């Protein structure tokens, strides 16, 4: 039990119980230490239950009984099979407490992130490091701001708190997602003109948030691309570069169609390839410098133009006024009046812009309808022209109708014969072509099946690679976490000593098991010999009794010998029974001694004395409460 108690005490210390170094066994546990150990274990197992329990026993007996009942209920909620009550903690005995503490220690979460099934990795190590840092900082007492040293000001002050504000960054790239390799001019820009990352930001405090945001964007983009390539890219039968180029072209066409739908005039005048998009974007920005306030452009362009105009005109007006004749108040009034005037003009221009945009939308719809009607009428005119051409030829042939009919008949017959000849020739060419088409189709189907099978194999291979990579990463993270935990463990504890102790315990258990097996085998052999001798004795006595009884009828001396034989047999039986009763009594004596030892270990007398003292304390508390009640 000493080794078990040492392991149990070590586990309780790891759970946070403050056990003195001189305590080496459960027998030395006091009531306060037992309550603290159980509460600490409950806080680790079920924090919601353990937080509401105090690990310090109060002086009042009623409060102690309540804490004992709460601990007993918490242990029962954890499905503890043994008997537990307030007496288990207040009037404890060694076996029950050892059994209860073993149960609670077995319920404690395991090491290595508390379970082998839970995910481990850098995040777990980081969380543990953060928890250790917070625990270390919480151990430092709080000091008022006026009394803090520079070190405490860093720990307990708010000078290190910064806002998480990310900015866009430009980093050098070796290749782009759609254009492939980066051009030489862009590489030259990266080398000669691109400032470092720290110089791209207005404030140095946004460096870390910007890098984190940039890294998160890159990771999410790579993950989205990998998922899309595995789900759609592999089925398109394209290379990754071709698939990216196809996506780029499709996005370009969608943007062009959207712009054409937004601006029908620009969409009707510019059609075609990607240069139309550039020209179309050019039409939106054209004429800003020469068209004045009502030039083509969006509402934002007009607003920006007015703002620039206001910024350009207001300094000249301020400079034109003599400084000696203007005061600050007059300048503010003038600026306010100018601002109101400009806001009125801006609102008027905005209304005009909205009206013009509505007119443009209406005219665009009308133009689209007119263009559709023009196309329909052009189709009708083309059909009518073809019909008119046929009718004109027919009218020209009417004067010489008979000759023309004969010629037409000859032409029709020759055309029919030629069609028959062509049909015969087509049949000659069609049969091998059909056979070749069927062969090619069968070959195409087989290749399609083969490509589908290989595609499924590629996807399975990707999944296996991904799972293997995840498993390798998981094991790598677990290895790093175990290294960190190994470094955090105390160095004075020798693993070989624990291993040696475990091996010694195992060897002792093996020796005890061998001795028990040997004793059991010897007992079986002895029991077998006793049974054999008893049977042999019974058979011998039966034969002797029969022979002597036959001669005892005729001879008096033989009759006395028979009486002595019967007495001897009875005395031997009584002797054997006495020996068996002695063995039974010895076993009962040993059982009683063990019961006495167990009862002695239960500290019944001391517990009775403690119960009597607690009873007297309860009576005193009740009397005090009654006196207070009467006084009130």
What does this structure look like?
Among the domains are: 2-109, Actin-binding Protein, T-fimbrin, domain 1, CATH 1.10.418; 287-388; 399-493; 515-601. Helices cover 76% and strands 1% of the residues. Helix 1 (2-14) packs across helix 6 (94-107) and helix 2 (31-45) runs parallel beside helix 6. The protein is mainly α.
Spell out the key features of this protein:
two-stranded antiparallel ribbon, flat, 1% strand, mainly alpha, 632 residues, 2 strands, single chain, Actin-binding Protein, T-fimbrin, domain 1
Provide a quick synopsis of the model:
With 632 residues, the chain is mainly alpha-helical. The chain has helices spanning 2-14, 31-45, 47-50, 61-77, 86-90, 94-107, 122-138, 150-156, 184-192, 207-233, 240-262, 264-269, 274-285, 299-320, 328-397, 401-488, 495-552, 556-601, 604-631, and strands at 175-176, 180-181.
Low-confidence stretches: 111-120, 265-274, 280-326
- Using only C-alpha atoms, the radius of gyration works out to 52 Å
Read across the widest sheet, the strand sequence of neighbours is 1-2
Strand content: under 5%
CATH architecture label name of the domain at 2-109? Orthogonal Bundle
Helix and strand run: HHHHHHHHEEHHHHHHHHHHH
Tally of contiguous helical segments: 19
Q: How many individual β-strands?
A: 2
Oligomer, anyone?
Answer: single chain
- Gross morphology is flat
Look at the structure and give the CATH class of the domain at 2-109: Mainly Alpha
| Sheet of most strands | 2 strands, antiparallel
Distance between the termini: 56 Å
The CATH topology of the domain at 2-109: Actin-binding Protein, T-fimbrin, domain 1
Helix/strand/pairing class, anyone?
A: mainly alpha
**Helical residues, percent:** over 70%
Mean pLDDT: 77
């Amino acid at each position: 039990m000493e080794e078990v108690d040492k392991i149990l005490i070590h586990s309780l210390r790891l759970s946070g119980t403050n056990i003195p170094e001189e305590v080496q066994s459960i027998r030395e546990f006091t009531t306060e230490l037992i309550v603290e150990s159980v509460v600490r274990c409950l806080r680790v197992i079920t924090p919601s239950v353990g937080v509401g329990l105090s690990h310090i026993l109060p002086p009042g007996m009623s409060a102690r009984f309540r804490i004992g009942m709460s601990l007993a209920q918490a242990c029962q909620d954890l499905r503890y099979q043994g008997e537990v009550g307030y007496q288990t903690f207040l009037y404890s005995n060694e076996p029950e407490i050892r059994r209860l503490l073993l149960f609670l220690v077995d319920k404690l979460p395991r090491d290595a992130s508390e379970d082998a099934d839970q995910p481990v990795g850098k995040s777990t190590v980081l969380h543990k490091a953060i928890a250790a840092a917070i625990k270390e900082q919480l151990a430092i007492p709080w000091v008022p701001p006026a009394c803090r040293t520079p070190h405490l000001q860093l720990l307990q002050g708010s000078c290190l708190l910064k806002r998480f504000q990310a900015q866009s960054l430009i980093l050098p790239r070796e290749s782009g997602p759609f254009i492939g390799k980066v051009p030489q001019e862009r590489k030259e820009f990266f080398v000669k003109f691109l400032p470092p990352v720290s110089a791209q930001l207005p404030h140095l405090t946004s460096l870390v948030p910007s890098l984190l945001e940039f890294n998160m964007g890159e990771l999410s983009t790579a993950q989205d691309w990998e998922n899309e390539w595995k789900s759609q890219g592999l089925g398109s039968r394209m290379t990754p570069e071709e698939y990216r180029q196809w996506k780029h072209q499709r996005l370009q066409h969608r943007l062009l169609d959207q712009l054409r739908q937004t601006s029908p005039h620009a969409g009707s005048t510019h059609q075609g390839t990607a240069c139309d998009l550039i020209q179309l974007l050019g039409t939106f920005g054209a004429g800003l410098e020469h068209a004045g306030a009502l030039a083509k452009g969006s509402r934002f362009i007009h607003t920006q133009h007015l703002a620039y105009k206001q910024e350009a005109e207001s300094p000249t007006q301020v400079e034109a006024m003599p400084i000696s004749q203007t005061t600050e108040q007059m300048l503010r009034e003038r600026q306010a009046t100018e601002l109101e005037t400009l806001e009125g003009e801006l609102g008027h221009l905005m209304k005009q812009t909205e009206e013009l945009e509505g007119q443009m939308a209406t005219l665009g719809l009308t133009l689209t309808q007119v263009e559709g009607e023009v196309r329909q009428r052009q189709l009708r005119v083309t059909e009518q022209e073809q019909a008119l051409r046929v009718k004109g030829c027919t009218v020209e042939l009417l004067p010489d109708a008979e000759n023309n009919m004969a010629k037409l008949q000859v032409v029709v017959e020759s055309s029919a014969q030629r069609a028959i000849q062509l049909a015969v020739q087509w049949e000659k060419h069609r049969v091998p072509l059909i056979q070749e088409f069927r062969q090619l189709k069968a070959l195409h189907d087989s290749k399609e099946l083969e490509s589908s099978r290989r595609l499924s194999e590629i996807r399975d291979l990707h999944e296996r690679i991904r799972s293997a990579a995840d498993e390798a990463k998981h094991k790598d993270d677990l290895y790093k976490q175990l290294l960190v935990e190994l470094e955090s463990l105390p160095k004075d504890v020798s693993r070989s000593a624990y291993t040696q102790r475990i091996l010694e315990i195992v060897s002792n258990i093996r020796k005890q098991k061998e001795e028990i097996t040997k004793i059991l085998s010897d007992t079986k052999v002895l029991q077998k010999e006793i049974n054999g001798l008893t049977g042999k004795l019974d058979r011998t006595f039966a034969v002797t009794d029969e022979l002597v009884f036959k001669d005892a009828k005729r001879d008096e001396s033989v009759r006395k010998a028979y009486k002595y034989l019967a007495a001897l047999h009875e005395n031997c039986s009584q002797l054997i029974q006495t020996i068996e009763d002695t063995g039974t009594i010895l076993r009962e004596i040993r059982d009683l001694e063990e019961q006495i030892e167990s009862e002695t270990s239960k500290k019944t007398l001391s517990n009775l004395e403690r119960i009597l003292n607690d009873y007297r304390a309860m009576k005193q508390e009740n009397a005090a409460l009654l006196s207070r009640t009467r006084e009130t």
